[in-house]
Amino acid sequence: xxxxxxPHCKQPxxxxxxxxxxxxxxxxxxxxxxxGKLKYPTPKIIIVIIIVLVLVSFTIxxxx
Length: 64
What we know:
This protein is mainly alpha-helical. The protein is 44% helix and 6% strand. It contains two helices and two strands, in the order ββαα. The chain has helices spanning 33-39, 43-63; strands spanning 4-5, 12-13. Strands 1-2 form a two-stranded antiparallel ribbon. The termini are far apart. The mean pLDDT is 81.
């Protein structure tokens, strides 16, 4: 079972599903599933969402 190191207090966390550190209580900044990725967005996700929105709006403009 791989352990995760808390970025704040540097203590090892053995719980795979933990979202908060057991020692300091701060967020581990883990993204779980699609909604978790939206909660902690990376620039790549934001760029992909913008490109998709531009393509969809362009397609709707062409169809009219």
